[in-house]
Amino acid sequence: MPIATVNPANGETVKTYEAMGEEEIERRLQLAEATFRTYRTTSFAERTRLMHRAADLLDEDRQDIARVITTEMGKPVRQARAEAAKCAKAMRWYADHAEELLADEEPAAADAHDSGASRVLVRYRPLGPVLAVMPWNFPLWQVVRFAAPALMAGNVGLLKHASNVPQTALYLEDLFHRAGFTEGCFQTLLIGSAAVDDLLRDERIKAATLTGSEPAGRAVASTAGEMIKKTVLELGGSDPFVVMPSADLDRAAEVAVDARCQNAGQSCIAAKRFIVHTDVYDAFAERFVAGMKALKVGDPADEETDVGPLSSERGRADLEELVDDAVRGGATVLCGGERPEGPGWYYPPTVLAGITREMRVHREETFGPVATLYRAGDLDEAVLIANDSEFGLSSNVWTRDEKEVDRFVRDLEAGGVYVNGMTASHPAFPFGGVKRSGYGRELSGHGIREFCNITTVWHGA
C-alpha cells in the first residue's frame, strides 16, 4: 500500500511520500537507542513539564490537525476536534499521575523479614525503545494513548503509523519535538508493513504495541514471541449491546445510534451486535432504526455531518460483502444497505435483522455503520448470544435490575462492561480485551506499567 494522503470524500490523492530507506531507518534506530540512555534518567518533573507543553501545543493546533485528519481518513471534523481534545486530556492525566503510578512499592515488612531481608522494594524502570504499530481510525488517539505513558515512564517511541495517515504521523513527531522532547524520544517511521518484521527482530527494539487487525496482531505477536519481546495487542471487536425490559428505551436507542455510527462505525469498541429482549424488541428496533435514518451522511468537512465516508474503497467493499452475504442468507434490511451514487467511499447507516450463525456478519467484525439486531428470549439467551463471538473487547448492557447487572458483569466475556452507557476509553481506566481482541492493557496504571521492567530490590538484613 502506498504511503499517501487520499481524500476518502472524493478519492483524490492529495500527497504521496517515499518510504524511508534502510539507511534512514538505521539512523533513527541509533538515535532512539542513544536518546534512551539519557532520557531514562530525566526526572518526573522534567517529563511532566514536557508533556504538559505537548498538550498545550495540541490544543493550539486542534483546528488545523482536525482538518488534516478529516482529509486523510474521513472523520467528521467535529469528531476530529474532539479526538484532539481527548489526546491533550490524556497527556495531562499522565503528566500529573505518572510519578504516583510508578512510585516504588514496599511489600509488607513481615514478608520482607520472612525472606531474610531488612527491606524490599518493587521499582518500575523503563525498557527502552518501543515500537508502536498504529491504525488510521483514531490516528491521534491511538498513538497518544501509547506515547503519553511510554514517554512518562522514561521509554522512547518509534511509530509505524497506517500508510493512509502520513501527515498525521509526521505531525505527532513534530508535536513532541516542538514541546521540547529530545529528537530521538519520539520518531515517526514512514515505512510499509513489510518493514515491521525486521524492526521487531532488531535488538534495539525492546517491546512493541499494536492496535489493528487480527492478522496484523498475529504477525507481530509471532515475531515478538520468537524474539522474546513484550507486546500489547488491541485487535478487533464485535461488541454486544444488550437491552433488557427495564431499560430506558429512548435513551438506550439514542446511545445505540452513537455507539454504532461514531467515526462512521470504524471503531473496534463500537457496539455492533444489538441483542434485545423479546419483550422490548419491537419498541427498541423502531426507535433505533428511526435514529439511524435521521443521521446526516455527507462531506466530513461540513460541521453538520454525522457520518462521513469510510476510509478506503477496499473498506467499503468489505462491508458491502458482509451485508450482501447476510441478505442472501435471509437477513432483513430495516434501513440502508445500498451504496449511494456519486464520488467518495460513503455507505449509509444500515440495520440488519434476522441474523443467523451461518452469516459472515455474525462471525466477522463490521467496520462501518452496519448494525445487526438479535432477539433474545431471556437473560440466559442474551448472554449466550453476546458471548458467541471470537472477539471480547468491550460490551454494553442496559438494565435497571441490579441482579441482572451482576450476572452480566460475571458472565460476559469482554475486557469491559458498560452499564447504561456507551463504551468509551478514558486515561484513568484500563482498556483492552480478551479472546481474539488481544491481550495486555492500555491506559491507567496498568497501561503505563506494561512497558516497564518491574524490578525487585532486596536488601539483606
TrEMBL record:
SUPFAM superfamilies: ALDH-like (SSF53720)
CDD domains per record: ALDH_SSADH1_GabD1 (cd07100)
UniProt GO molecular function: aldehyde dehydrogenase [NAD(P)+] activity; succinate-semialdehyde dehydrogenase (NAD+) activity; succinate-semialdehyde dehydrogenase (NADP+) activity
Family membership: Belongs to the aldehyde dehydrogenase family.
Domain Aldehyde dehydrogenase span(s) in chain numbering: 3-457
Keywords: NADP, Oxidoreductase
Top-level lineage group: Bacteria
Name recorded for this polypeptide: Succinate-semialdehyde dehydrogenase [NADP(+)]
Enzyme class: oxidoreductase
EC numbers: 1.2.1.79
InterPro entries, sorted: Ald_DH/histidinol_DH, Ald_DH_C, Ald_DH_N, Aldehyde_DH_dom, ALDH_GabD1-like, GABD/Sad-like
